[in-house]
């Protein structure tokens, strides 16, 4: 079972998270999500446990627990449906501009309502 763990202290590392869940059963993987530019923790991660009963027990016991002064959120992770993922270029209009620009200038396509350069 894949488990979401949120509101993590930024000081916690994957070994700490593995140890916390390992008390309840076999942990197959741990991943704390980090910012791709700074490498700093984003304050949430995922724990994979092989046995669903052990995973449910860990969720029950650890959800709402305090870790380094922060109340963590622990629940079953549900994957997002493919249609709900947003891509980088979502705001591009088909005319090559950036949608509904209302500021000054005449940049690209879109519905410009401001002045021109």
Report strand %: 25-35%
Indicate the percent of residues in helices: 10-25%
Major β-sheet annotation: 4 strands, antiparallel
What is the fold-level CATH name, i.e. the topology of the domain at 2-77?
Alpha-Beta Plaits
Describe this structure in words.
By secondary structure, the protein is an alpha+beta fold. The protein contains two helices and six strands, in the order βαββαβββ. It has a domain of 76 residues: 2-Layer Sandwich (Alpha-Beta Plaits), CATH 3.30.70.330. β2 and β3 form a beta hairpin. The model has no long low-confidence stretch (mean pLDDT 83).
Keywords:
single chain; 117 residues; alpha+beta; Alpha-Beta Plaits; 4-stranded antiparallel β-sheet; two-stranded antiparallel ribbon; 2 helices; 26% strand; RNA recognition motif. (A.k.a. RRM, RBD, or RNP domain); SLIRP/GR-RBP-like; RRM2_NsCP33-like
Any chance you could write out the topology, listing elements then pairs?
Elements: E1 2-6, H1 14-22, E2 27-34, E3 41-49, H2 52-62, E4 66-67, E5 70-71, E6 73-76
Antiparallel strand pairs: 1-3, 1-6, 2-3, 4-5
Q: In summary, what is this structure?
A:
Residues 73-117 are annotated as: Disordered. Residues 1-79 form the RRM domain. With 117 residues, the chain is α+β, with helices and mostly antiparallel strands.
């Amino acid at each position: 079972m894949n488990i979401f763990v949120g509101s993590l202290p930024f000081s916690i590392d994957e070994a700490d998270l593995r140890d916390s869940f390992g008390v309840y059963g076999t942990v197959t993987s741990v991943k704390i999500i980090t910012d791709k530019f700074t490498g700093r923790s984003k304050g949430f991660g995922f724990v994979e446990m092989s046995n669903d009963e052990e995973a449910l027990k860990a969720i029950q016991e650890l959800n709402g627990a305090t870790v380094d002064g922060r109340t963590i959120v622990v629940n079953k992770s549900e994957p997002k449906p493919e249609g709900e993922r947003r891509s980088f270029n979502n705001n591009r209009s088909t005319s090559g501009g950036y949608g509904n620009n209302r500021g000054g200038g005449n940049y690209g396509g879109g519905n410009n309502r401001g002045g021109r350069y």
